[in-house]
Amino acid sequence: MTQPFPGLELLSTAVLMLDEALQVTYANPAAETLLAHGRKHLLGASFERVVPGNARFAKRLAQAVADDAGFSENELTLEIAGQPVTLGCVAVPIMEEPARLLLELRELDQQIRIAREAKLVEHQQANRELIRNLAHEIKNPLGGIRGAAQLLERELPGPELREFTQVIVKEADRLQSLMNRLLTQSRLPQIEMINVHEVMERVRTLVLAEHPEVLAVRRDYDVSLPDLPGDKESLIQAVLNVARNAAQAMNGRGQIAFRTRVARQVTIAKARYRLAVAVEIEDNGPGVPENLADKIFYPLVTGREGGSGLGLSLAQSYVHQHQGLIEFESAPGRTCFTILLPVRNPAEAGLARPPSESDKP
């Protein structure tokens, strides 16, 4: 079998090497991710066994080997794990015994997602800075309005008129609380090594306490996930905001699934990570309204009467603090939010080193 090639190991695109019989002699980590199989399963297997249901493409690969000629396609649709995937494909003849053909596959959907994500992050940073500036400007006159209402209340002759000043005071307090929530995300993160399942269990307890007996939370955890550096309270708040949003969309009646998985060779905001933790929060509610799908993470955007429109926006902000990504897919009866958190070096995340036993009291 062909030994791994260091340069190919780091590529974000899937690379396979095939011999004359179209058996896999090499697969890089990105190919493992794309094909949803480990390298041990891929090596020595035929292409048709690795990617079943693509006989026409396999025939084209065999012809390329026979003719010692390559080809490329900008939009190739292959069936992978039972799902159609649109790929860019380049096949190049090589003489790296026993390999005869190098096949590079890049997910076009992933490229579109990366570009969309980069644009969204840029927009959100500008939008959040604007919101913070507005919040600062609004807080000052709110205090004056509240104080004036209290002074006016003392001068009013009857309790029936004081009801109106109480409305002013309560609404000023509500707006003050809203402004504080917009500004609290600027606190410095407290970085520590975190087990993501502790975060999930804390959120599960809180959500069930808010909706006892009428909400079911199902757990599907990968207990082998590594710890990752992060701010525990911020991550709890991010997951809680998503889970709470799901529960409220179902009026507290329905089922939420908490799922954790490992993701390999993940690209987030043009940065490549060998490992990431994927957290999924899935509900069986009505789904995200189509008119809100493109702006659901924007501040003050909500599809629920009485909602502040801050929950998902703050969740996105907390996830971005961890160099992560939050995205969703939705249809009536199923909405799934996925939070990707890269497993970074503790020093890069702001933690000098994991605490040792001697550090503990």
Question: What order do the helices and strands come in, and which of them pair?
Answer:
Elements: H1 6-9, E1 14-18, E2 24-27, H2 29-35, H3 39-42, H4 47-50, H5 55-67, E3 71-80, E4 83-96, E5 99-107, H6 108-155, H7 159-183, E6 191-194, H8 196-210, E7 215-220, E8 228-231, H9 232-249, E9 254-268, E10 271-283, H10 311-321, E11 325-331, E12 334-342
Helix pairs in contact: 6-7, 8-9, 9-10
Question: Can you describe this structure?
Answer:
This protein is α+β, with helices and mostly antiparallel strands and 361 residues long. It folds into 3 domains: 105 residues, 2-Layer Sandwich (Beta-Lactamase), CATH 3.30.450.20; 75 residues, Helix Hairpins; 152 residues, Heat Shock Protein 90 (2-Layer Sandwich). It is built from 10 helices and 12 strands. The protein has a 5-stranded antiparallel β-sheet. A 5-stranded mixed β-sheet has the order 7-9-10-12-11, with helices on both faces. It has a two-stranded antiparallel sheet with strand order 6-8. β3 and β4 form a beta hairpin. The protein is elongated and about 100 Å long. The protein starts with 5 loop residues before the first helix and ends in a 19-residue tail after the last strand. The C terminus is likely disordered.
